[in-house]
Amino acid sequence: MGSRRNFLEKLTISTISIPILYSPTKLFAASTAPYEGPILRVAIMGLGSYGTRVAKAMESCKRAKLVGLISGTPSKVVKWRAKYDIPEKNCYNYDNFDNIKDNPDIDAVYVITPNALHKEQTIRVAKAGKHVICEKPMGINAKEGQEMVDTCKAANVKLLVGYRMHYEPKTVEVIKMRKAGEFGKLKFFQGLSGFTIGDPTQWRLNKELSGGGAMMDIGIYSINGARYMLGEEPIWVTAQETKTDPIKFKEGVDETIQFQMGFPSGAVASCLSTYAMSHLDRFFLNGEKGFVEMRPSTGYGPIKGRTHKGELTQPHITHQTLQMDGMAQLIFEEVQPIVPVDGEEGVKDLKIIDAIYKAAKTGEKVSL
Ligand code: NAD
């Protein structure tokens, strides 16, 4: 298994043929042929753990390139500049990044900072006339998300959310099967999303910066997953919160929430979001004609899964490489992924998060 994993992890976008990832209107299929179209020139804001992963993945992109940095830590900027050959004129800090408006060499900014900073930073980038790719959750509630969407629209820039799973080949295959009716009438989705969080001083456990707890960070995968696996929007939620460590998980920072969602077709979802359990990364979809089991379902991969027809065999490709090439194509050519990655998609998840928090607090069934 180890050697298979190593082998899969070494595969890159340029060395294998990639299955079709987009809806039939405009198909995306990577090839080994040299790419000669436009390159999306991206600045990363927030050079932390995920920013580092995205930058590395972009080394294998054909259509996107890291060309700029926005950081509050000069020592990181020095290191990243050397590693990625980034000119000083493309480097900014959190005070002066509005000046990016005068920089014709940057097309888009990828916001990869703590959740509660996303809204203000996205709005500033949009007002500087650059496209925004923003990490999930795009904001800390639906009101924020909508303001971000409206501002980007008014500024005539694109707003995309870092939903990397919407480009992941096994996930895309399952969505295609669902659209083709291969599972029959869908009845049930289960999403388990969680990990055991460490350092109690990190921003993820500080409501001012995180906007919440596990739900904002990892539970959102089960919400988004329920929507793309079932292909419907929920009409109600119920939720129950459990807190075993009120010192680590302070007021407003959720440790564990179980939640249920009901859909117009009658399908139901049962999900778990937690910062207090490990090995939780599993999706299960059940229909009248078949099923899908994915585990891991949303980690960095390789994703593994099987349906009633057998194992999912699509290749593992670094998620963020596919995502960034796909987003470049979306920005330049309006080529859409099979499930949207735009700001409106982000707002849909935030509306559900708002409702789940309300349901957990009141104990009531909340309509959407
Ligand atoms: P991180 O702590 O590793 O990095 C955050 C970065 O933001 C750091 O470089 C930090 O210096 C910077 N920062 C700027 N202002 C800050 C402030 N006031 N307080 C604290 N840090 C500040 O976190 P991360 O894991 O990189 O997460 C960043 C974002 O990316 C989050 O929104 C998270 O949800 C998202 N994320 C997405 C995925 C994914 O798979 N899509 C994975 C991990 C994280």
Automatic annotation (TrEMBL):
What keywords are assigned to this protein? Oxidoreductase
InterPro entries linked to this entry: Gfo/Idh/MocA-like_OxRdtase_N, Gfo/Idh/MocA_domain, GFO_IDH_MocA-like_dom, Glc-Fru_OxRdtase_bac, NAD(P)-bd_dom_sf
GFO/IDH/MocA-like oxidoreductase domain location is 174-292
Q: Check the record and name the Pfam families matching this protein.
A: GFO_IDH_MocA (PF01408), GFO_IDH_MocA_C3 (PF22725)
Q: Name one GO molecular function term.
A: oxidoreductase activity
| PANTHER family given in the database record | OXIDOREDUCTASES (PTHR22604), TRANS-1,2-DIHYDROBENZENE-1,2-DIOL DEHYDROGENASE (PTHR22604:SF105)
Instruction: Please identify the protein, giving its name as recorded.
Output: Gfo/Idh/MocA family oxidoreductase
Supply the source organism for this entry. Answer: Arenibacter aquaticus
Lineage of origin: Bacteria, Pseudomonadati, Bacteroidota, Flavobacteriia, Flavobacteriales
